[in-house]
Amino acid sequence: MSRWSDEMYMHGLNKLKLFQLGYYLELDDVEDFESNDEYLKAAITLFNEIIGDTKYFLHKPSPEIFEDKSARYSEKLKELEKKKENGEDGEDPFRSTEFYEEHELSEEEKTIVLLLLSKRGVGISPSEISLDGESLIHALKLTHGTPPEEGRKLLSEDSILLENKIIKSGKSKRSHRRPPGRRDRERGYSEIERSKYYLTGDAANAILGTGEMEIKEERRGSSNSRKDRKMKEDLMESIDPEVSFSDVVLPQELKDSILSLLAQESSKEKFLDEWNMKSVVGEREGINLLFSGPPGTGKTMMAKAIGNRLDKEVHKVSLSDMVNVWYGETEKNVGRMFELVEEKEGVILLDEAEGLLNMRSGAVSSTDATENRMVNLILQELEEHSGIIIMTSNLAKSIDPALERRMDLKVKFPVPDAKEREKIWEYHIPNELPLAEDVNIETLARKYDFPGGKIRNAVVNAARRSLMCEEEVVTQEDLETACEKELEGEKAMDYYVGEKKSDDSRRYA
Fold first, then answer.
1. Closest alpha carbon to 42 in 11, 93, 12, 87
2. Contact 322, 356 (CB under 8 A)
3. CA Rg, the chain, in Å?
4. How far apart are CA 332 and CA 374, in angstroms?
């Protein structure tokens, strides 16, 4: 592990603490802050909005809108500080103010600290608790009108923030991958823009100033780290990706749309850097796909084929497994899942994604609130990861617009037609399976309007039926009996084998 990665891991915090405590607090909802916590919750809410707009203006510059936003945020920051000063008239001093005064921070330096505290407060994995220099410099321009050269000075190695170890810096992934390119030079980018910055744990705790919100450092090799790693592994099921694109029966135009998206992953540096498509797609380097359709239509199979095509492992995670009755554990499981996305560098398959697809509720119960927090957190992380995430659902009629916007591609898997069903029958019948001369796959494909999952079940159950009846081959009767039982919707292990060459009925085993 590089020095930077190790430092980032060592400073990984109890990452969801602020989120669990409900840090959302709109500035307009408070007359004057009564505590340091209240001030920080409002500040984090405001600065998360600033971070979002900063990313927008990085890639879609619009001078008029920028000026309007800049004026608004300038007023909001003044309002934030005024309400804080009024609140400090009480008995207890605000720890954040003591921290600012101790280090003699300017308004721009306080903004950098709050930007990084906001990012750290909702971060998931160590790589997601930081902001790059480019974003911080643009955020200062948005909030204070700070020129880029002044912003660089505030982030330089001899700045107050870095010398006093309030923040730390390190190389970004992209900075490691390549030297500064022509576009970087044209934009006047320095190493500062290309570096990552994060708030140290000591500084964050000094600002937070409460045991309830305290950031706890974790070190590699500790029992907590080992326990957390095991819990992450328990969320995941590795599945065999040995399926090719040709094995998946799907209309060719849908296959082509998936293949065109995967071309981005195969040529990521060319796509994002040389062609500067990052200015269009934004910060996220990852890919999000949504596969919907009836059960058994090939959604999981296609996920395997994608892993095979990219030579990546496929890890299956069920959203239902992440829900935990203990307070805060569901959110922690979400964090662990996205850590897996970064660590495994494979394809993450989110199964049973119906809970994400529907509109978020009004949180009338504690269960609703937990689910809403989980959904909000996942939506945020879908914007920032660098892996490949595939969501599958049997029902995607009412998709939350926030989720829909984060999907690079949505594919509806149709029930196959007769010709496609014939191919699926051929795929699921092994060459080694002995078939009677009367077996007619074309007839089965026309007669039974089955998706791939049911066809697979029928082949397996027909083979079992033949074994139980002590036959040497699988007959058309075996296959059609299994198909009829599929139509009845009975479990494969619970129905009776029909009468075959005798008056006896035998229990299907």
1. 87
2. no
3. 28
4. 9
